[in-house]
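Retro notes, structure queue

What went well: the backlog is down to a handful. What didn't: a couple of records were mislabeled last round, so from now on we paste the full input next to the output in the thread. Example, using Kynurenine aminotransferase 1 from Bos taurus:
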Amino acid sequence: MAERARKRPCGSLTMAKRLQAQRLDGIDYSPRVEFVQLASEEADVVNLGQGFPDFSPPEFAVEAFQHAVSGDFMLNQYTKAFGYPPLTKILANFFGKLLGQEIDPLKNVLVTVGAYGALFTAFQALVDEGDEVIIIEPFFDCYEPMTLMAGGRPVFVSLKPSPTQKGEPDSSSNWQLDPTELASKFTSRTKAFILNTPNNPLGKVFSKEELELVASLCQQHDVVCISDEVYQWMVFDGFQHISIASLPGMWERTLTIGSAGKTFSVTGWKVGWVLGPDSLMKHLRTVHQNSIYHCATQGQAAVAQSFEREQLHFGRPSSYFVQLPQYIQRCRDHMIQSLQSMGFRPVIPQGSYFLITDISDFKNKMPDLPGAAGEPYDRRFVKWMIKNKGLVAVPVSIFFSLPHQKFFDHYIRFCFVKVKDSPGEGRAPQASSDLLGRGVGLICVGAG
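Corresponding output:
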Protein backbone atom coordinates (compact mmCIF):
# COMPACT_ATOMS: atom_id res chain seq x y z
CA MET A 1 0.00 0.00 0.00
CA ALA A 2 2.76 2.45 0.97
CA GLU A 3 4.71 1.55 -2.19
CA ARG A 4 1.67 2.22 -4.42
CA ALA A 5 1.08 5.55 -2.67
CA ARG A 6 4.66 6.62 -3.31
CA LYS A 7 4.29 5.92 -7.06
CA ARG A 8 1.11 7.98 -7.46
CA PRO A 9 1.83 11.11 -9.56
CA CYS A 10 2.32 14.20 -7.44
CA GLY A 11 -0.87 16.22 -7.15
CA SER A 12 -3.21 13.56 -8.55
CA LEU A 13 -6.48 12.82 -6.81
CA THR A 14 -9.05 10.27 -7.90
CA MET A 15 -12.48 10.42 -6.27
CA ALA A 16 -15.68 8.60 -7.02
CA LYS A 17 -17.55 11.77 -6.03
CA ARG A 18 -17.70 14.80 -8.31
CA LEU A 19 -14.62 16.84 -7.46
CA GLN A 20 -15.29 20.39 -8.68
CA ALA A 21 -18.26 22.47 -7.59
CA GLN A 22 -21.01 22.60 -10.20
CA ARG A 23 -20.83 26.41 -10.28
CA LEU A 24 -17.44 26.10 -12.00
CA ASP A 25 -18.85 24.26 -15.01
CA GLY A 26 -18.16 26.14 -18.22
CA ILE A 27 -16.12 28.96 -16.70
CA ASP A 28 -12.76 27.26 -16.19
CA TYR A 29 -11.39 28.61 -19.48
CA SER A 30 -10.53 32.31 -19.78
CA PRO A 31 -9.51 33.60 -23.23
CA ARG A 32 -7.85 36.62 -21.65
CA VAL A 33 -5.67 34.38 -19.48
CA GLU A 34 -4.81 32.32 -22.56
CA PHE A 35 -3.53 35.33 -24.51
CA VAL A 36 -1.54 36.67 -21.56
CA GLN A 37 0.05 33.22 -21.24
CA LEU A 38 0.83 33.12 -24.96
CA ALA A 39 2.54 36.49 -24.67
CA SER A 40 4.65 35.33 -21.73
CA GLU A 41 5.89 32.31 -23.69
CA GLU A 42 7.41 34.42 -26.48
CA ALA A 43 10.70 36.25 -26.09
CA ASP A 44 10.98 39.98 -26.79
CA VAL A 45 7.32 40.71 -27.44
CA VAL A 46 5.67 44.13 -27.46
CA ASN A 47 2.74 43.83 -25.06
CA LEU A 48 0.02 46.29 -26.04
CA GLY A 49 -2.67 43.95 -24.78
CA GLN A 50 -2.86 44.08 -20.99
CA GLY A 51 -4.53 47.02 -19.30
CA PHE A 52 -1.97 48.57 -17.03
CA PRO A 53 0.26 51.64 -17.42
CA ASP A 54 4.02 51.31 -17.60
CA PHE A 55 4.70 54.79 -16.25
CA SER A 56 5.23 55.77 -12.63
CA PRO A 57 2.29 56.58 -10.35
CA PRO A 58 2.15 60.19 -9.10
CA GLU A 59 4.86 61.00 -6.59
CA PHE A 60 2.33 61.83 -3.88
CA ALA A 61 0.83 58.30 -4.13
CA VAL A 62 4.25 56.62 -3.96
CA GLU A 63 5.21 58.78 -0.98
CA ALA A 64 1.91 57.94 0.71
CA PHE A 65 2.61 54.23 0.32
CA GLN A 66 6.17 54.61 1.59
CA HIS A 67 4.87 56.48 4.60
CA ALA A 68 2.25 53.79 5.23
CA VAL A 69 4.94 51.12 5.22
CA SER A 70 7.56 52.95 7.27
CA GLY A 71 5.39 55.11 9.55
CA ASP A 72 2.78 53.98 12.05
CA PHE A 73 3.66 50.37 12.90
CA MET A 74 0.00 49.60 13.61
CA LEU A 75 -0.67 49.87 9.87
CA ASN A 76 0.94 46.42 9.70
CA GLN A 77 -2.10 45.04 11.53
CA TYR A 78 -5.80 44.52 10.83
CA THR A 79 -8.05 47.49 10.39
CA LYS A 80 -11.85 47.47 10.29
CA ALA A 81 -13.15 44.66 8.10
CA PHE A 82 -15.20 46.86 5.77
CA GLY A 83 -12.52 49.50 5.25
CA TYR A 84 -9.76 51.54 6.88
CA PRO A 85 -11.71 54.38 8.55
CA PRO A 86 -9.74 57.29 6.99
CA LEU A 87 -10.32 55.73 3.55
CA THR A 88 -14.05 55.09 3.96
CA LYS A 89 -14.42 58.62 5.34
CA ILE A 90 -12.66 60.33 2.42
CA LEU A 91 -14.46 58.15 -0.14
CA ALA A 92 -17.79 59.06 1.43
CA ASN A 93 -16.94 62.75 1.46
CA PHE A 94 -15.35 62.89 -2.01
CA PHE A 95 -17.96 60.88 -3.90
CA GLY A 96 -20.87 62.16 -1.84
CA LYS A 97 -20.31 65.58 -3.41
CA LEU A 98 -20.11 64.10 -6.91
CA LEU A 99 -23.21 61.94 -6.49
CA GLY A 100 -25.27 64.51 -4.57
CA GLN A 101 -25.70 62.18 -1.60
CA GLU A 102 -24.97 62.19 2.12
CA ILE A 103 -22.83 59.06 2.20
CA ASP A 104 -22.29 57.29 5.53
CA PRO A 105 -18.75 55.82 5.69
CA LEU A 106 -20.00 52.90 7.77
CA LYS A 107 -23.16 52.02 5.85
CA ASN A 108 -22.59 53.15 2.26
CA VAL A 109 -18.92 52.29 1.59
CA LEU A 110 -17.15 48.93 1.32
CA VAL A 111 -13.43 48.59 0.53
CA THR A 112 -12.59 45.52 -1.53
CA VAL A 113 -9.64 43.73 -3.13
CA GLY A 114 -9.73 45.83 -6.28
CA ALA A 115 -12.78 46.58 -8.39
CA TYR A 116 -12.64 42.92 -9.45
CA GLY A 117 -13.31 41.95 -5.84
CA ALA A 118 -16.09 44.49 -5.66
CA LEU A 119 -17.78 42.98 -8.70
CA PHE A 120 -17.49 39.43 -7.37
CA THR A 121 -18.89 40.47 -3.99
CA ALA A 122 -21.83 42.24 -5.67
CA PHE A 123 -22.72 39.24 -7.85
CA GLN A 124 -22.50 36.82 -4.95
CA ALA A 125 -24.58 39.07 -2.72
CA LEU A 126 -27.42 39.87 -5.13
CA VAL A 127 -27.69 37.27 -7.91
CA ASP A 128 -29.60 34.12 -7.09
CA GLU A 129 -30.31 30.90 -8.95
CA GLY A 130 -32.29 31.67 -12.10
CA ASP A 131 -31.97 35.45 -11.87
CA GLU A 132 -31.36 37.21 -15.18
CA VAL A 133 -28.52 39.70 -15.48
CA ILE A 134 -28.45 42.07 -18.48
CA ILE A 135 -24.94 42.64 -19.85
CA ILE A 136 -24.05 45.17 -22.57
CA GLU A 137 -21.73 43.85 -25.29
CA PRO A 138 -18.83 44.31 -25.68
CA PHE A 139 -18.33 43.63 -21.96
CA PHE A 140 -15.46 43.28 -19.53
CA ASP A 141 -15.02 39.55 -19.66
CA CYS A 142 -15.57 38.72 -15.97
CA TYR A 143 -19.24 39.75 -15.99
CA GLU A 144 -20.49 36.58 -17.68
CA PRO A 145 -18.59 34.00 -15.54
CA MET A 146 -19.41 35.90 -12.34
CA THR A 147 -23.10 35.79 -13.29
CA LEU A 148 -22.89 32.06 -13.98
CA MET A 149 -20.97 31.32 -10.79
CA ALA A 150 -23.72 32.99 -8.79
CA GLY A 151 -26.33 30.82 -10.54
CA GLY A 152 -27.68 33.62 -12.71
CA ARG A 153 -28.45 33.70 -16.42
CA PRO A 154 -26.66 36.29 -18.57
CA VAL A 155 -28.85 38.19 -21.05
CA PHE A 156 -26.91 40.12 -23.68
CA VAL A 157 -27.66 43.29 -25.59
CA SER A 158 -25.15 44.62 -28.12
CA LEU A 159 -23.87 48.08 -28.84
CA LYS A 160 -23.92 48.37 -32.62
CA PRO A 161 -21.82 50.74 -34.73
CA SER A 162 -23.61 53.33 -36.84
CA PRO A 163 -22.44 53.61 -40.47
CA THR A 164 -19.77 56.23 -41.12
CA GLN A 165 -19.02 58.19 -44.26
CA LYS A 166 -16.19 56.83 -46.41
CA GLY A 167 -12.89 58.07 -45.03
CA GLU A 168 -14.48 59.30 -41.80
CA PRO A 169 -12.94 57.74 -38.66
CA ASP A 170 -15.22 55.63 -36.50
CA SER A 171 -15.84 56.68 -32.91
CA SER A 172 -16.97 54.77 -29.84
CA SER A 173 -19.79 57.30 -29.51
CA ASN A 174 -21.21 55.88 -32.77
CA TRP A 175 -21.83 52.53 -31.05
CA GLN A 176 -25.36 52.65 -29.71
CA LEU A 177 -27.96 50.53 -27.99
CA ASP A 178 -31.26 50.06 -29.78
CA PRO A 179 -33.86 51.32 -27.26
CA THR A 180 -36.51 48.81 -28.35
CA GLU A 181 -34.10 45.88 -28.18
CA LEU A 182 -32.82 47.05 -24.79
CA ALA A 183 -36.34 47.30 -23.37
CA SER A 184 -37.14 43.79 -24.64
CA LYS A 185 -34.36 42.31 -22.48
CA PHE A 186 -36.09 43.28 -19.22
CA THR A 187 -38.42 40.63 -17.83
CA SER A 188 -39.94 39.71 -14.48
CA ARG A 189 -36.82 37.60 -13.87
CA THR A 190 -34.32 40.43 -14.42
CA LYS A 191 -32.39 41.07 -11.20
CA ALA A 192 -29.47 43.24 -12.25
CA PHE A 193 -28.21 45.42 -15.08
CA ILE A 194 -24.44 45.74 -15.58
CA LEU A 195 -23.20 49.12 -16.75
CA ASN A 196 -19.57 49.88 -17.62
CA THR A 197 -18.80 53.51 -18.44
CA PRO A 198 -16.30 54.34 -19.81
CA ASN A 199 -16.54 50.94 -21.43
CA ASN A 200 -13.77 48.36 -21.70
CA PRO A 201 -12.87 47.43 -24.47
CA LEU A 202 -14.65 50.03 -26.62
CA GLY A 203 -13.89 53.23 -24.71
CA LYS A 204 -17.50 54.41 -25.02
CA VAL A 205 -18.65 57.05 -22.54
CA PHE A 206 -22.40 56.71 -22.08
CA SER A 207 -24.31 59.96 -22.55
CA LYS A 208 -26.86 61.34 -20.10
CA GLU A 209 -29.66 60.41 -22.50
CA GLU A 210 -28.44 56.81 -22.68
CA LEU A 211 -28.11 56.61 -18.90
CA GLU A 212 -31.60 58.06 -18.44
CA LEU A 213 -32.99 55.30 -20.67
CA VAL A 214 -31.24 52.64 -18.58
CA ALA A 215 -32.37 54.32 -15.36
CA SER A 216 -35.98 54.43 -16.52
CA LEU A 217 -35.98 50.73 -17.39
CA CYS A 218 -34.29 49.73 -14.12
CA GLN A 219 -36.90 51.65 -12.13
CA GLN A 220 -39.80 50.40 -14.23
CA HIS A 221 -38.76 46.75 -13.76
CA ASP A 222 -37.37 47.05 -10.20
CA VAL A 223 -33.83 46.11 -11.24
CA VAL A 224 -30.51 46.78 -9.48
CA CYS A 225 -27.79 48.54 -11.48
CA ILE A 226 -24.18 47.48 -10.92
CA SER A 227 -22.15 50.35 -12.38
CA ASP A 228 -18.46 49.67 -13.08
CA GLU A 229 -16.87 53.14 -13.30
CA VAL A 230 -13.17 52.38 -12.85
CA TYR A 231 -12.16 54.58 -15.81
CA GLN A 232 -14.22 57.59 -14.74
CA TRP A 233 -11.22 59.95 -14.65
CA MET A 234 -10.02 58.92 -18.12
CA VAL A 235 -12.46 60.77 -20.38
CA PHE A 236 -11.36 62.70 -23.47
CA ASP A 237 -12.48 65.20 -26.14
CA GLY A 238 -14.71 67.19 -23.82
CA PHE A 239 -16.93 64.22 -23.02
CA GLN A 240 -18.23 64.00 -19.46
CA HIS A 241 -18.47 61.01 -17.18
CA ILE A 242 -21.84 60.80 -15.47
CA SER A 243 -22.50 58.35 -12.64
CA ILE A 244 -25.90 56.75 -13.08
CA ALA A 245 -26.33 56.83 -9.29
CA SER A 246 -26.53 60.63 -9.54
CA LEU A 247 -29.72 60.47 -11.64
CA PRO A 248 -33.10 60.83 -9.90
CA GLY A 249 -34.26 57.62 -8.26
CA MET A 250 -31.06 55.68 -8.98
CA TRP A 251 -28.98 56.00 -5.80
CA GLU A 252 -31.45 53.66 -4.07
CA ARG A 253 -30.84 50.86 -6.61
CA THR A 254 -27.24 51.36 -7.77
CA LEU A 255 -23.89 49.97 -6.71
CA THR A 256 -21.08 52.24 -7.94
CA ILE A 257 -17.71 50.51 -8.23
CA GLY A 258 -14.33 52.26 -8.34
CA SER A 259 -10.65 51.38 -8.40
CA ALA A 260 -7.57 53.01 -6.91
CA GLY A 261 -5.57 51.02 -9.46
CA LYS A 262 -7.07 52.97 -12.36
CA THR A 263 -7.55 56.21 -10.39
CA PHE A 264 -3.91 56.59 -9.31
CA SER A 265 -2.19 54.30 -11.87
CA VAL A 266 -1.39 51.66 -9.22
CA THR A 267 -3.11 48.52 -10.50
CA GLY A 268 -0.93 46.28 -8.33
CA TRP A 269 -2.21 47.78 -5.09
CA LYS A 270 -5.60 46.08 -5.61
CA VAL A 271 -7.69 48.56 -3.65
CA GLY A 272 -11.26 48.99 -4.84
CA TRP A 273 -14.57 50.09 -3.39
CA VAL A 274 -18.34 49.93 -3.69
CA LEU A 275 -20.70 52.78 -2.89
CA GLY A 276 -24.43 52.29 -2.46
CA PRO A 277 -27.49 52.36 -0.21
CA ASP A 278 -27.38 50.33 2.99
CA SER A 279 -30.29 48.19 1.78
CA LEU A 280 -27.91 46.74 -0.84
CA MET A 281 -24.57 47.20 0.91
CA LYS A 282 -25.53 45.13 3.95
CA HIS A 283 -25.70 42.06 1.72
CA LEU A 284 -22.28 42.80 0.22
CA ARG A 285 -20.88 43.12 3.74
CA THR A 286 -22.21 39.65 4.51
CA VAL A 287 -20.30 38.18 1.56
CA HIS A 288 -17.19 40.21 2.37
CA GLN A 289 -17.04 39.18 6.03
CA ASN A 290 -17.41 35.52 5.07
CA SER A 291 -14.82 35.55 2.28
CA ILE A 292 -12.13 38.25 2.09
CA TYR A 293 -13.02 39.78 5.47
CA HIS A 294 -10.21 42.34 5.30
CA CYS A 295 -8.03 44.16 2.75
CA ALA A 296 -4.39 45.19 3.18
CA THR A 297 -4.25 48.09 5.62
CA GLN A 298 -1.20 49.88 4.22
CA GLY A 299 -2.57 50.05 0.69
CA GLN A 300 -5.81 51.51 2.03
CA ALA A 301 -3.89 54.08 4.05
CA ALA A 302 -1.94 55.18 0.97
CA VAL A 303 -5.12 55.51 -1.10
CA ALA A 304 -6.79 57.51 1.67
CA GLN A 305 -3.89 59.96 1.77
CA SER A 306 -3.89 60.22 -2.04
CA PHE A 307 -7.59 61.09 -2.11
CA GLU A 308 -7.09 63.65 0.64
CA ARG A 309 -4.44 65.32 -1.52
CA GLU A 310 -6.71 65.21 -4.58
CA GLN A 311 -9.59 66.73 -2.67
CA LEU A 312 -7.44 69.79 -1.97
CA HIS A 313 -6.49 70.14 -5.66
CA PHE A 314 -9.75 68.97 -7.25
CA GLY A 315 -10.61 70.82 -10.47
CA ARG A 316 -7.31 72.72 -10.57
CA PRO A 317 -4.47 72.23 -13.07
CA SER A 318 -2.43 70.67 -10.25
CA SER A 319 -5.01 67.87 -9.81
CA TYR A 320 -3.92 64.43 -10.95
CA PHE A 321 -7.49 63.90 -12.13
CA VAL A 322 -6.97 66.84 -14.49
CA GLN A 323 -3.44 65.90 -15.59
CA LEU A 324 -4.06 62.17 -16.12
CA PRO A 325 -6.77 62.39 -18.84
CA GLN A 326 -4.85 65.13 -20.66
CA TYR A 327 -1.77 62.96 -20.72
CA ILE A 328 -3.58 59.75 -21.66
CA GLN A 329 -5.42 61.54 -24.45
CA ARG A 330 -2.02 62.38 -25.94
CA CYS A 331 -1.10 58.70 -25.65
CA ARG A 332 -4.35 57.78 -27.37
CA ASP A 333 -3.78 60.25 -30.20
CA HIS A 334 -0.24 58.95 -30.70
CA MET A 335 -1.59 55.40 -30.97
CA ILE A 336 -4.35 56.43 -33.38
CA GLN A 337 -1.88 58.20 -35.67
CA SER A 338 0.44 55.20 -35.64
CA LEU A 339 -2.37 52.78 -36.46
CA GLN A 340 -3.79 54.96 -39.20
CA SER A 341 -0.36 55.37 -40.79
CA MET A 342 -0.19 51.59 -41.10
CA GLY A 343 -3.62 51.24 -42.70
CA PHE A 344 -5.62 50.28 -39.62
CA ARG A 345 -9.04 51.74 -38.92
CA PRO A 346 -9.16 52.50 -35.19
CA VAL A 347 -12.42 53.25 -33.39
CA ILE A 348 -11.59 56.45 -31.52
CA PRO A 349 -12.39 55.98 -27.81
CA GLN A 350 -13.81 58.72 -25.59
CA GLY A 351 -12.47 57.13 -22.42
CA SER A 352 -10.54 54.28 -20.73
CA TYR A 353 -7.11 52.74 -21.43
CA PHE A 354 -8.16 51.03 -24.65
CA LEU A 355 -9.12 51.36 -28.26
CA ILE A 356 -10.28 48.76 -30.73
CA THR A 357 -9.28 48.73 -34.38
CA ASP A 358 -10.90 47.20 -37.42
CA ILE A 359 -8.77 44.48 -39.06
CA SER A 360 -11.16 43.73 -41.94
CA ASP A 361 -8.50 44.59 -44.52
CA PHE A 362 -6.15 42.01 -43.00
CA LYS A 363 -8.99 39.51 -42.87
CA ASN A 364 -9.48 39.98 -46.59
CA LYS A 365 -5.76 39.68 -47.35
CA MET A 366 -5.03 36.76 -45.00
CA PRO A 367 -8.30 34.86 -44.57
CA ASP A 368 -6.77 31.44 -43.97
CA LEU A 369 -4.66 31.89 -40.84
CA PRO A 370 -4.19 28.63 -38.90
CA GLY A 371 -6.46 27.94 -35.95
CA ALA A 372 -9.01 25.61 -34.48
CA ALA A 373 -12.20 24.85 -36.42
CA GLY A 374 -14.69 27.65 -35.89
CA GLU A 375 -12.19 29.82 -34.03
CA PRO A 376 -13.02 33.51 -34.55
CA TYR A 377 -10.70 35.27 -36.98
CA ASP A 378 -9.50 37.91 -34.49
CA ARG A 379 -8.19 35.19 -32.14
CA ARG A 380 -6.28 33.52 -34.96
CA PHE A 381 -4.94 36.89 -36.05
CA VAL A 382 -3.69 37.82 -32.56
CA LYS A 383 -2.00 34.42 -32.16
CA TRP A 384 -0.34 34.97 -35.54
CA MET A 385 0.83 38.43 -34.44
CA ILE A 386 2.28 37.14 -31.17
CA LYS A 387 4.12 34.25 -32.78
CA ASN A 388 5.28 35.88 -36.02
CA LYS A 389 5.48 39.59 -35.24
CA GLY A 390 6.08 39.74 -31.50
CA LEU A 391 3.10 42.02 -30.94
CA VAL A 392 0.40 41.38 -28.33
CA ALA A 393 -3.17 42.64 -28.60
CA VAL A 394 -6.47 41.18 -27.38
CA PRO A 395 -9.15 39.81 -29.75
CA VAL A 396 -12.40 41.69 -29.30
CA SER A 397 -14.62 38.64 -29.86
CA ILE A 398 -13.80 37.48 -26.31
CA PHE A 399 -15.83 40.45 -25.07
CA PHE A 400 -19.00 39.14 -26.75
CA SER A 401 -21.35 36.26 -26.01
CA LEU A 402 -20.79 33.10 -28.05
CA PRO A 403 -23.68 33.64 -30.54
CA HIS A 404 -22.48 37.18 -31.33
CA GLN A 405 -18.73 36.58 -31.61
CA LYS A 406 -18.87 35.88 -35.35
CA PHE A 407 -20.28 39.38 -35.98
CA PHE A 408 -17.40 41.13 -34.21
CA ASP A 409 -14.38 38.98 -35.08
CA HIS A 410 -12.76 41.72 -37.19
CA TYR A 411 -11.61 43.90 -34.29
CA ILE A 412 -8.64 43.72 -31.92
CA ARG A 413 -7.97 45.77 -28.77
CA PHE A 414 -4.84 47.75 -27.94
CA CYS A 415 -3.90 49.37 -24.64
CA PHE A 416 -2.40 52.82 -25.24
CA VAL A 417 -1.05 53.67 -21.76
CA LYS A 418 2.39 52.27 -22.58
CA VAL A 419 4.74 55.25 -22.40
CA LYS A 420 7.95 56.38 -20.73
CA ASP A 421 7.14 59.90 -19.47
CA SER A 422 4.75 60.47 -16.59
CA PRO A 423 1.60 62.62 -16.38
CA GLY A 424 2.35 66.18 -15.41
CA GLU A 425 5.72 66.37 -17.17
CA GLY A 426 4.15 68.36 -20.02
CA ARG A 427 5.78 66.48 -22.89
CA ALA A 428 4.21 64.48 -25.67
CA PRO A 429 4.35 60.78 -24.78
CA GLN A 430 7.14 58.67 -26.18
CA ALA A 431 6.62 54.93 -26.55
CA SER A 432 8.65 52.84 -24.12
CA SER A 433 11.53 51.48 -26.21
CA ASP A 434 9.51 52.83 -29.14
CA LEU A 435 6.79 50.31 -28.31
CA LEU A 436 4.13 51.86 -30.47
CA GLY A 437 6.28 52.48 -33.50
CA ARG A 438 8.02 49.17 -33.27
CA GLY A 439 4.90 47.22 -32.38
CA VAL A 440 2.58 48.70 -34.96
CA GLY A 441 5.34 48.53 -37.55
CA LEU A 442 5.94 44.86 -36.82
CA ILE A 443 2.43 43.83 -37.70
CA CYS A 444 2.59 45.10 -41.24
CA VAL A 445 5.88 43.47 -42.18
CA GLY A 446 4.93 40.61 -44.43
CA ALA A 447 1.24 40.98 -43.69
CA GLY A 448 0.24 40.30 -47.25
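Agreed that this is the format going forward. Reviewer comment attached to the example: Residues 24-57+318-444 form a domain with the Aspartate Aminotransferase, domain 1 fold (CATH 3.90.1150.10).
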